[in-house]
């Protein structure tokens, strides 16, 4: 699906800060078919990946978060118990960004578009298809993201206990999910935002990831929307792959 613009508060982009940029380009190019040309010198090594000329994600070196300035959204973050990790900065003519942590510690980026509106291609093989928060406090997370982004939270599962899953919604449209960290997850894993990439065959993608030097955290598993797996690339960055039911 091609996208020209995103509503305010809708997740629009995913990128990776890598200790070895060339290695990351090779891994994701081989896995997803990303074409990642060298970015401009003034971008400090940051490169935009595309499929068929449509932007899908970014790859760059790890960032130094020591920057200046704030904006209205960052004021909401601070007022709602979040933490500003990288205050707002202009990214040439592309837009304006900042990095924050929610009150539970999960890190997420803010993006105010100028020339770069976000991913131009989503929900197709090799592209971003879902964003998901794993938290240790559902109610605190609901309060924060409602205050900062205006997200509504729709719980799924039987009443009377923790929801099986929560969907984030804007104007009734699902734009992401949330689940409570459980005992099956590593104790040392902090609250975090995870990304899902669409693939035509989850099992085949997992085998390819292993051949490329990546690893599997959760093997292919069937869930209501389709079949997914939790994996890591060859430098230890985790992500998810999913094949949706037709």
Topology:
Blueprint lengths: L14 E4 L2 H12 L14 E5 L2 E8 L10 H8 L3 E9 L3 E7 L5 E7 L14 E8 L2 H12 L2 E5 L8 E6 L2 E8 L11 E7 L3 H10 L3 E9 L2 E7 L5 E7 L2
Parallel strand pairs: 1-3, 7-10, 11-14
Antiparallel strand pairs: 2-3, 4-5, 5-6, 7-11, 8-9, 9-10, 12-13, 13-14
Give structural notes.
It is globular, with a radius of gyration of 18 Å. The protein contains four helices and 14 strands. By secondary structure, the protein is of the alpha+beta class. A hairpin with an 8-residue loop joins strand 8 and strand 9 (165-170). The strands form three sheets. Strands 8-9-10-7-11-14-13-12 form an eight-stranded mixed β-sheet, covered by helices on one side. The longest helix has 12 residues, at 21-32.
Task: Kindly summarize this structure in a few lines.
The chain has 246 residues and is an alpha+beta fold. It contains four helices and 14 strands.
Overall average residue pLDDT: 92
Task: Kindly provide the radius of gyration, computed on alpha-carbon positions and rounded to a whole number of angstroms.
Answer: 18 Å
Secondary structure tally: strands: 14
Would you tell me the structural class of the helices and strands?
alpha+beta
Strand order of the largest sheet: 8-9-10-7-11-14-13-12
Report how far apart the termini are: 15 Å
Major sheet description: 8 strands, mixed
| Strand portion | 35-45%
Order of helices and strands: EHEEHEEEEHEEEEHEEE
Secondary structure tally, helices = 4
Low-confidence stretches are 64-70
Q: What form results from the Cα inertia axes?
A: globular
Q: What proportion of the residues is helical, as a percent range?
A: 10-25%
């Amino acid at each position: 699906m091609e996208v020209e613009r995103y509503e305010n508060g809708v997740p629009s982009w995913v990128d990776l800060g890598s200790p070895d940029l060339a290695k990351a380009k090779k891994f994701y190019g081989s896995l997803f078919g990303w074409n990642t040309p060298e970015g401009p010198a003034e971008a400090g090594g940051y490169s935009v990946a595309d499929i068929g000329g449509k932007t899908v994600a970014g790859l760059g070196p790890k960032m130094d978060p020591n920057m200046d300035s704030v904006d209205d959204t960052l004021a909401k973050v601070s007022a709602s118990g979040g933490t500003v990790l990288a205050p707002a900065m202009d990214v040439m003519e592309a837009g304006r960004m900042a990095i924050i942590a929610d009150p539970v510690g999960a890190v997420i980026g803010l993006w105010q578009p100028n020339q770069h509106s976000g991913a131009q291609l989503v929900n197709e093989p090799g592209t971003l298809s879902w964003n998901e928060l794993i938290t240790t406090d559902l109610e605190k997370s609901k309060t924060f993201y409602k205050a900062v982004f205006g997200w509504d939270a729709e719980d799924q599962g039987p009443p009377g206990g923790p929801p099986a899953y929560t969907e984030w919604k804007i104007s009734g449209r699902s734009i992401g999910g949330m689940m409570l960290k459980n005992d099956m997850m590593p104790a040392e894993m902090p609250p975090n935002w995870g990304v899902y990439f669409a693939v035509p065959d989850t099992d085949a993608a997992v085998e390819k990831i292993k051949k490329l030097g990546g690893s599997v955290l959760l093997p292919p598993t069937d869930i209501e929307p389709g079949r997914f797996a939790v994996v890591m690339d060859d430098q230890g960055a985790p992500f998810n792959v999913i094949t949706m039911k037709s």
